[in-house]
Amino acid sequence: MIFIHNGVNDLLENIKEVKLNLLSKDKISNLISGDFGISIIEHPHNPLLLGSDALLKVNTNIGVSSKESFSTELKKLELLSKLPYSPDSIMDHTIVKLDKPLWKYMLEIFDKPIGTLPHYSVFRNNKGIDKSLLLETIEEMGENGISFMTLHPTATLKLLEVAKLNRSIPTTSRGGVLILKDTQINNRNTNIIVDNFDDILKIFKKYNMTLSVGTAFRPARIDEALDQTQIIEINEQEKYINYIKSKGVNTIMEGVGHLSLNSIKKYCSRIHHLKTPLMPLGPMPTDATIGFDHVTSAIGATVISLYGNVGIINSVTREEHTGGVPNIDSIIEGLKSARVAAHCINITRFKKYQNIDNAISSKRASSKSCVISGGIFDDGLSNNGIGCSRCSFECPLSLLV
Predict the structure, then answer these.
(1) Kind and range of the H or E element at 283?
(2) What is the widest separation between alpha-carbon atoms in the chain?
(3) What is the C-alpha to C-alpha distance for residues 28 and 236, in angstroms, rounded to an integer?
(4) Could you give the dihedral angle defined by the CA atoms of residues 51, 52, 56 and 62, in that order, rounded to the nearest 10 degrees?
(5) How many CB atoms lie within 10 A of CB 366?
(6) Does domain 57-349 have CATH number 3.20.20.300?
(7) Which of 56, 64, 109, 357 could form a disulfide with 342, with the two C-beta atoms 3.0–4.6 Å apart?
(8) pLDDT exceeds 70 at position 400
């Protein structure tokens, strides 16, 4: 359910589905007034309508791993902002302290929703997370214009023990592990997110931010998916999602991790009643395609978006499991892979959206060639005069004309 406040009606004018005449403002208002499993990530110019009744959106993650890499990440940001197929949102995954945070550059350069994980920037080795610093950081981010954040309230030591007993790899969530480490370092009974949840939600409501309920224990291998640990966490996510909604804050659900294709439908059925848009991280339907994770993720994202209430997918690079830091070309490759998945889903969600494909097919028919320019990655620079060098006069597109 989307919570109405002063200014939401103004947002409707800027929603992509309205601009493309895919959904009317009245239709969106009806979705807002009922509990139809949609949410809005707010932004003054490019708000994102999320859910299976909307276009599937794409998020890209970048971040500074060392101060020496800052200039490279800034170049990635600048390039991503200029692409005709730029992501619908960007998240800052920076893990080092900077004089000026990367997310502030994002707000200046990228005129679309920006997301963060505030505990990434406030965690200190051997000290954990300071409560005041965490709340001040969330407040600062909201005040400056951050649209959404991922937090991990389900990262509990009790569930960690369950994961250790039943899994060879307890978790693959960096954000979740930071919360768990802080809980251990500071001997907390409950984690710092839960301890301060009401104060955090007040900040989110104040700045109309969306809270993504993170998965602290998403599985790291496909044969441990939908195990006891994940089912328990899904139940905990449900509790927090319902509580967040009760406080008048928009929410989305993070998931799922590594999950085989034949388990995706079961997973989607398990979370369908939550009526909250899903933002899957991956998902990875095989563990064996190291170096081609952008392809693997696109396949998994397509299938889960076909079956579930997926609102936004994440672009994944080929370096996901190779240990390298993605360069600019790899970031774009991952983004394009995710865009392919999103487009395949969007032509199933909106018949009118298939006009993009129809235009390509019609152009091939009129040109009597399958080699043409255009498509979702068209930059206006494609050469349309190359032609095809394979079939010569026996081209099947022109042979019987």
Answers:
(1) strand 278-284
(2) 78
(3) 29
(4) 40
(5) 9
(6) no
(7) 56
(8) no
Cα–chain center distance at 376: 20
pLDDT of residue 7: 58
Contact in structure between 53 and 38 (CB atoms under 8 Å): yes
HEC assignment per residue over 49-72: EECCCCCCEEEEEECCCCHHHHHH
> Residue 188 above 90 pLDDT?
yes
* 21: amino acid identity, one letter: N
| Distance from C-alpha of 308 to C-alpha of 320, rounded to nearest angstrom | 24
Measured between alpha carbons, how far is 97 from 72 in angstroms, rounded to an integer?
Answer: 16
Residue 369 pLDDT greater than 80, yes or no: no
Q: Which two tokens stand for residue 186?
A: 């500071």
Task: List pLDDT tens digits, range 120-179.
Answer: 999 999 999 999 999 999 999 999 999 999 999 999 999 999 999 999 999 999 999 999
Give me the DSSP letters along 94-124: --S--SS-HHHHHHHH--S-EEE-HHHHH-B
CA distance 338 to 301: 8
238 DSSP 8-state letter: H
pLDDT in tens, 238-263: 999 999 999 999 999 999 889 999 99
SS3 label, residue 313: strand
End-to-end alpha-carbon separation of the chain, Å? 54
Q: Which two tokens stand for residue 213?
A: 């309920």
Q: So where are the chain's domains? A: 57-349, 357-394
DSSP 88: S
pTM of the model: 0.94
β-bridge partners, 389:
none
Q: Are 298 and 272 in contact (CB under 8 A)?
A: no
Contact 96, 66 (CB under 8 A): yes
Highest mean pLDDT pick, 5-19, 20-34, 89-103: 89-103
Q: Positive or negative CA dihedral for 160, 166, 167, 172?
A: negative
The first and second tokens of residue 109, run together, are 């350069």
